[in-house]
Amino acid sequence: MIERLRDQGIRDEIVLAAMNAVPRHIFVDEALASRAYDDVSLPIGFGQTISQPYIVARMIEVMRNGATLNRVLEIGTGCGYQAAVLAQVARDVYSVERVQSLYERAMGYMQELKIQNVILRYADGNNSLPAAAPFNGIIVAAAATHVPQALLDQLAVGGRMVLPLGAQEQFLYLIERDAEGYRETRLEAVKFVPLLTGKI
């Protein structure tokens, strides 16, 4: 998988090492374990998916941009795979999940892997986590139609946010915040589940 990620253009060795450190197969159903390292998204129930390895690595690489990450926010924990990878590259990871069963499953995986720097929250990700802000980096693992204002407010000056935007047609965007405001850069086309409101 790591060599394929290199071939796909992932250059950040810290991100590649993080991808290599997390066993992806434990985050998917046993019936799908044989496909765990293929470059595909896989269903995890509740209409959600575990993102393909390339997208996980790409989003983290863009957000990290070679910098040391102290505090990172992830919206959409899902099964917890991306949070586990983020835990290898950031000091503290806060991850929010709106589906209680997925939140509980992710908690179990973190305990199984003895990952102690991920703080999971069962909450509506649209509100993010103002109590823990500001964040050096924010990753959103679901597609919004616009950048939620709460996330912009909680991005630190000098911070970077990576998220998919769009409905039928989606693109990955990088949002950078500096002293003057926000700068938006459109990256490649992607396909994510929609960012929904409320908890279930």
Structure, explained:
- This protein is an alpha/beta fold and 200 residues long.
- The protein has one domain (2-190): Rossmann fold (3-Layer(aba) Sandwich).
- It has helices at residues 2-7, 13-21, 53-64, 81-89, 100-112, 149-154; strands spanning 42-45, 48-50, 69-75, 90-97, 118-122, 135-140, 155-166, 170-178, 181-190.
- Helix 2 crosses helix 4.
- It is globular, with a radius of gyration of 15 Å.
- The N and C termini lie far apart (34 Å).
Q: What are the key terms here?
A:
single chain, 200 residues, alpha/beta, Rossmann fold, 7-stranded mixed β-sheet, two-stranded antiparallel ribbon
Summarize the structure.
Helices cover 28% and strands 32% of the residues. It has helices at 2-7, 13-21, 53-64, 81-89, 100-112, 149-154; strands at residues 42-45, 48-50, 69-75, 90-97, 118-122, 135-140, 155-166, 170-178, 181-190.
Query: What is the H/E string?
Result: HHEEHEHEHEEHEEE
Mean pLDDT level: 92
Count the domains.
1
Order of strands across the widest beta sheet?
Answer: 5-4-3-6-7-8-9
Topology:
Layout: H1 2-7, H2 13-21, E1 42-45, E2 48-50, H3 53-64, E3 69-75, H4 81-89, E4 90-97, H5 100-112, E5 118-122, E6 135-140, H6 149-154, E7 155-166, E8 170-178, E9 181-190
Parallel strand pairs: 3-4, 3-6, 4-5, 6-7
Antiparallel strand pairs: 1-2, 7-8, 8-9
Helix pairs in contact: 2-4
